[in-house]
């Protein structure tokens, strides 16, 4: 059995119907259980895989180190990106979920590591819903292209994520072949009920069979 060296929680699809598995990636200070209710709301029939980031910042789990708010330790980020991509490949072998149907759902720091995987390992995710994401790193080399549906859900009044960074992330993903939609909402960095309804509709449009 592959070594599944991230703390995680895997919940099988209730009826084994859709074949999708949502990979749930929390924000700073969260854990593998935080986004399970959101995942179930977005996709009632999907399997769920909640993962806990390995880096601790003052005791708070994250997916990679940062030097300051919005300033990332790129060496650690790239290492953690590869590490999480490897974990997801191993988890698919262990739990038997379809790699082709893996959808990222990330919030804040979790959205940023998901974006980093999308930029660096185009084979891992078949789609992504990223809440309050920013550019994790500016890629230099070109990766294989994949027409992955990606939703970027952004807050117009977000004081942590500059609007320009969300737009730039959209461009970078677009250059990777992704089919990107950015939805702007009135709020700030926190999630709001109406945007979750819109995200659910987006997910159903893109992934209902
Ligand atoms: C956070 O607090 O998680 C930041 O806004 C995003 C990050 O550091 O990745």
Automatic annotation (TrEMBL):
This is Alpha/beta hydrolase. Keywords: Hydrolase. InterPro entries: AB_hydrolase_fold (IPR029058), Dienelactn_hydro (IPR002925), LYPA1-2/EST-like (IPR050565). Pfam families: DLH. Signal peptide: none annotated. The lineage of its organism: Bacteria, Bacillati, Bacillota, Bacilli, Bacillales. GO terms for molecular function: hydrolase activity. Residues 92-195 form the Dienelactone hydrolase domain. It comes from the Bacteria. Gene3D superfamilies: alpha/beta hydrolase.
